[in-house]
Amino acid sequence: MAANTILKGKAALVTGSTQGIGLAMLKALASAGCNVTMHGIPNDMEKIQRLCKQIAKDNSVEVTYSDANLLNPGQIRDMVRESHSAFGRLDILVNNAGIQHVAPVHELPDDKWDAIIGVCLSATFHATKAALPYMLEQGWGRIINTGSMHALVASPFKSAYNAAKHGVAGFTKTVALEVATKNVTVNAICPGYTDTDLVRNQIADTARIRGIPVESVIRDVLLADQPSKKFVKPEDIGALVVHLCGPHSDSFTGACLSIDGGWVAR
């Protein structure tokens, strides 16, 4: 059995959870005894299948997988319904999936804007709309949205991402108010730069392009606005998710919780 079973018997769906922050969230929920639905683009199905089997084995939980296209509302609804059907309940929804494109506003392609708004913001709406009825019927639910620090502050050349994540913050607060008396909480987690493979690849690329050491990229480029000068650990984000779903989480709702090494304290 999992060492920590505070969520034993509950079921969660985590979008964008085949790697990075989403995978850390999924593993943390599974380690707390939660049955989980993994979601992501099926670039390597063998790897995904191995991950699902390993997580299930390590934690004595059930793990399912969805490759729903988050730009398709019908597929999002199907994903939520199938996750509920697999476990007979849906207690936790983590809207984590996101995409990014960096460019000045006047050079940002229309299709990139639409895709970023679609995946980061509209998909959060569609998944929440589909999951809430199950939670309200059960009389308990937890919805957690990944906002990033860009839900709270802006950075240049990321207009679509900033707009989407600020929208996630507003959506989070609104839904939290609507269900505040229903034993369903809605919160956003806002990480700073996090130690993931995706970010590590950016470091190597940036060092090569700029002709500077990796250490300088980390300190002076990526973490220039992160006062701790340390990456956020994905496991810390996973632990926060578990806490927001645990027995002492009832009064956490409508919050946008920064976990960013002090980024938004400036």
UniProtKB/TrEMBL annotation:
Pathway: Lipid metabolism; fatty acid biosynthesis. InterPro entries: 3-OHbutyrate_DH (IPR011294), NAD(P)-bd_dom_sf (IPR036291), Sc_DH/Rdtase_CS (IPR020904), SDR (IPR050259), SDR_fam (IPR002347). Transmembrane segments: none annotated. It comes from the Eukaryota. It catalyses: a (3R)-hydroxyacyl-[ACP] + NADP(+) = a 3-oxoacyl-[ACP] + NADPH + H(+). GO terms for molecular function: 3-hydroxybutyrate dehydrogenase activity; 3-oxoacyl-[acyl-carrier-protein] reductase (NADPH) activity. Coiled coil: none annotated. One of its GO terms (biological process) is monocarboxylic acid metabolic process. Its EC number is 1.1.1.100. NCBIfam families: PHB_DH, PRK12429.1. Belongs to the short-chain dehydrogenases/reductases (SDR) family. This is 3-oxoacyl-[acyl-carrier-protein] reductase. It comes from Volvox carteri f. nagariensis. The lineage of its organism: Eukaryota, Viridiplantae, Chlorophyta, core chlorophytes, Chlorophyceae.
